[in-house]
Amino acid sequence: MRILGLSLTRSLFIGLITFATIAVNASIPEIKPGTPFTPLEPTREESITTQQVMSNLLRGHYERKRLNDDLSSQVLDTLLDDIDSTHSYLLQSDVKDFEQFRKTLDEALSRGNMKPAFYIYNRFQQRVNERLSFLLSELKENAGKYTFDSDETLNLDREEQPWATNARELNDLWRKRLKNSILNLRLAGKEDDAIIELLTKRYQNQLNRVHQSKPVDAYQTFMNAVTRSFDPHTQYFSPRNSENFNINMSLKLQGIGAVLQTEDEHTKVVRLVPGGPAAKADNLEPEDKIVGVGQDKDGEIIDVVGWRLDEVVDLIRGPKNSTVRLEIIQGNDSTSGDSKIIAITRDEVKLEEQSAQKEVIEVIDNGETRRIGVIDIPTFYIDFQGRMENRPDYRSTTRDVRRLITELQEENIDGLMIDLRSNGGGSLEEAINLTGLFIPTGPVVQVRGARGNVEVLQDLDPEVLYSGPMTVVVNRLSASASEIFAGAIQDYGRGLVIGGQTFGKGTVQSLRPLTEGQLKITQAKFYRVSGESTQHQGVIPDIMFPSLFDKEKIGESALTLALPWDTIKPARDMKNNPITSKIPQLRDLHNVRIEDNPDFIFMREQKDLVTEMRGKTEVSLNEKVRRSEREVNDERRLALENKRRLAKGMPVLDSINDDTDKAEDKQNSSKKSESSDDEIEGVADADTKNADDEKEPDAMLQEAGHILLDYMKLSSPAPGMTALR
Q1: CATH label, 368-508+523-574, candidates 3.90.78.10, 3.90.226.10, 1.20.1440.230, 3.30.70.100
Q2: I need a labelling partner for 432 at 20 to 30 A (CA). Which of 110, 217, 245, 295 fits?
């Protein structure tokens, strides 16, 4: 996702990219519980690298921060949050001891002195070592005696809880966590002996890995606390991380096409790569937790709870056409702990598989069928190598969309929708060029550097390929380049923006080499034609759709130390927007239409249910209570789905887990679903289904089509449809 043709730097990129690191050891020696953790020592190369990182941050970061006591304090707080956000390992005495570094980490960083960082990391690893040793001892001596008929509860939200004063308090917390793990497995149908065996193996694996820690682990943990103290998108890449980053940038790897991150002791799905194997398989979704990985159709499922992210990733990656089996806990099930095993066939995840696609949907308007063309753009891509070699058939978003629009016009569409839902960004150049298909020459985006200099990036091509009525559909994971395009279309009054508030990633990063690894550093911010930043706030749609996405957890505004929203001088006069005056009437028409719409009723009611379930900060450790809660929740979810189905004349489901139809996904019925908290693509597209299967229309696209038709009628003084311009 490099940006070409700009005067900023050759290594610029935008988008949402996450990855993992380091290969799995073929065999890890078993560590006896209670074995002390061997402290790690920093290397000379890490000292040199630290000075290089700090030089780059202090001179090149967009936020001109000073290396002083304030930054030192922020680094310490960030580090503690990174290693023990739930206050479950460290003691009050540990945290008090670390206070000796609160005002001195700046001096250590300036000298490349990593001893304070390693001191903190080693203490933390020792506490992790103690917790795992406790769990293994508890499993061996007491777990078989646990009862699950008391009123005991476990607090799930510990970020604001005080640090434990002694080991006894932590033992009680981890005893409850152990009970909860056992209860989750019980509810999933496992026998007690198998549960004890599974958890023993799980915690023993975690203990083994603690003792396999290397200096690079301590170093990158600390350095990323330093970089995150500047902003959430500035990041240190170890040599292995750099290798994985290059894989992501090339958009070529053999695997399942999923972006993962660690959450507590679980590996969580953040998003699926559009067009990738996981997205096509239609059985894995954002927020799902991966608890086991098996190879081929009958390979043993290896428990990976507590594993390092890099190790889990290495298990999931594999040769093209091979099969990986994942044991997952679905993200919408936060309390039951039920798991299921899914299979995904690995493939090469390529740019071409994420290319723009078209379809024509039919929208019934006052008894008349209108044809709306839809172009789905999963990412802003370009084959840089093909362009440099002057290949006549090289692929890019703009070239593909140009072809698709021409084809749609030949099919006599009445209007056009650009679907950017869950498009995490990509090439800035392509965002500018794509905008140019719909506007005459003019500014598209502004870029302000660290020194305050502003560069206005323009569409210089006077051609307007499509001047007809159009909308842009977005959601919370429409980010970066997507926000630039949607914002420009909105600023020019060229089309309606419909859907959910976008992600709000309005920063530019560059990649800089180091003695060991690389530094991804934020060096600029994006601004719309209107002068408004896309950072933090994102793009606010003209018409908002209901969404399950929690803005407190998803988006730039949910990230600690994210750069703020602000404004600069507009790049052009924005006073004569033809859409603005009609927005209130369009909203009224939309609200009347969705009042009795079964899909929108479902989304509103489901949001209420999900919000209620997310609000639970405690879980009961009483088995009878938990089973009852699960049954009630399943009944409520099933009732909501069947209410929707009955209203639409569809057959009802007998169970919420009925595989003949995915109840929570059908609200969107496209490869981009808002059925999970993390707003990533979910339901498979049409070519993954049998030819005889009837695809349920996408409720959001249907309503977006109605809104577009409403605007066309409001804009036309005479019968018939006219362009928005």
Answers
A1: 3.90.226.10
A2: 245
What is the number of other CB atoms lying within 10 angstroms of the CB of residue 129? Answer: 23
Q: 483 vs 248, 380, 477, 506, 535, CA distance in Å?
A: 21, 11, 10, 8, 9
Q: How far apart are the C-alpha atoms of 665 and 658, rounded to whole Å? A: 12
Residues 464-486 have pLDDT tens digits of 999 999 999 999 999 999 999 99
User: With 90 as the cut, is the pLDDT of residue 686 above it?
Assistant: no
Catalytic residue among 480, 669, 673, 675: 480
pTM given for the model = 0.77
CATH 3.90.226.10 location in the chain: 368-508+523-574
Residue 228 and residue 561 in contact, taking contact as beta carbons nearer than 8 Å: yes
Tokens of 55: 């030089």
**Residue 85 falls in the annotated catalytic set:** no
**Residues forming CATH 2.30.42.10 domain(s) in the chain:** 239-349
Q: Which of 16-25, 410-419, 552-561, 590-599 has the lowest mean pLDDT?
A: 16-25
**Active-site residue, selected from the candidate residues 84, 314, 491, 678:** 491
- Classify residue 165 as exposed, middle or buried by CB count within 10 Å of its CB (0-12, 13-18, 19+): exposed
pLDDT tens digits for range 631-677: 998 899 999 999 999 998 899 999 877 633 343 333 333 333 332 22
3-state helix/strand/coil string of 616-664 = CCEEECCHHHHHHHHHHHHHHHHHHHHHHHHHCCCCCCCCCCCCCCCCC
Catalytic residue among 179, 505, 520, 666: 505
Quick: pLDDT tens for 536-568. 999 999 999 988 888 888 899 999 899 999 999
How many alpha carbons fall within 13 Å on the CB side of residue 475? Answer: 28
* β-bridge partners, 342: 326
The string of DSSP letters for 282-298 reads T---TT-EEEEEEETTT
Other CB atoms within a 10 A radius of the CB of residue 589 amount to 18
15 CB-side CA count, 13 A: 28
Q: What is the mean pLDDT of the chain?
A: 85
Catalytic-residue membership of 505: yes
Give catalytic status of residue 268 as yes or no: no
Which residue is listed with tokens 């940038």? Answer: 249
Amino acid present at 567: T
Greatest Cα-to-Cα distance within the chain, rounded to the nearest angstrom: 83
What local confidence, expressed as pLDDT, does residue 242 receive?
62
Give the model's pLDDT for residue 41: 96
Q: Residue 611: count other Cβ atoms within 10 Å of its Cβ.
A: 11
Q: pLDDT band at 78, cuts 50/70/90? A: very high
Span 274-329, pLDDT tens digits:
778 888 888 998 888 999 999 998 899 998 887 877 788 888 988 888 999 999 98
**What letter does residue 591 receive in the DSSP assignment?**
H
Fold of 239-349: Pdz3 Domain (2.30.42)
Task: Give whole-number Cα distances, 251 to 71, 236, 395, 685, in Å.
Answer: 36, 20, 13, 21
Give the span between the Cα atoms of 38 and 57, in whole angstroms.
Answer: 32
Q: Which residues in 681-717 are b (16+ Cβ under 10 Å) and which e?
A: bbbbbeeeeeeeeeebbbbbbbbbbbbbbbbbeebee
pLDDT of residue 616: 85
